[in-house]
Specification:
- Helix 2 links the parallel strand 3 and strand 4.
- A five-stranded mixed β-sheet has the order 2-1-3-4-5, with helices on one face.
- The model has no long low-confidence stretch (mean pLDDT about 80).
- Helix 1 packs parallel to helix 2 and helix 2 packs parallel to helix 3.
- By secondary structure, the protein is of the alpha/beta class.
- It has four helices and five strands, in the order E-E-H-E-H-E-H-E-H.
Length: about 110
Amino acid sequence: MSLILLIGNICDCAVVEAAESGEQAVTLVCDRDSFDLIFMDYSMFAMNGLEACRAMRAHRTSARIILMSAHYSPEVRKEADEMGVTLLSKPFDDTVLERILRECDGGDPS
């Protein structure tokens, strides 16, 4: 199972939806573009994380997207950067997630 969390209302850190696939995440974003932050794994069945990001950006979502993986190629890094997608290398600890949530909420990232 892939990790895809679609989060709205950053201040309260409420997880609005959790999707089990890239296709499901794209459908949720297209149906209801009210997400502020999306955490998604790169390696998923049928549609990888970058393909899902591409579909979400085509839908014109303005949500911040965090794409997680243990390995990234230069091509993935380039395309993610062009789409405004943040790459997060695994493994990571809670402090990294806390910093990202503070940044998204407009707080001091330090």
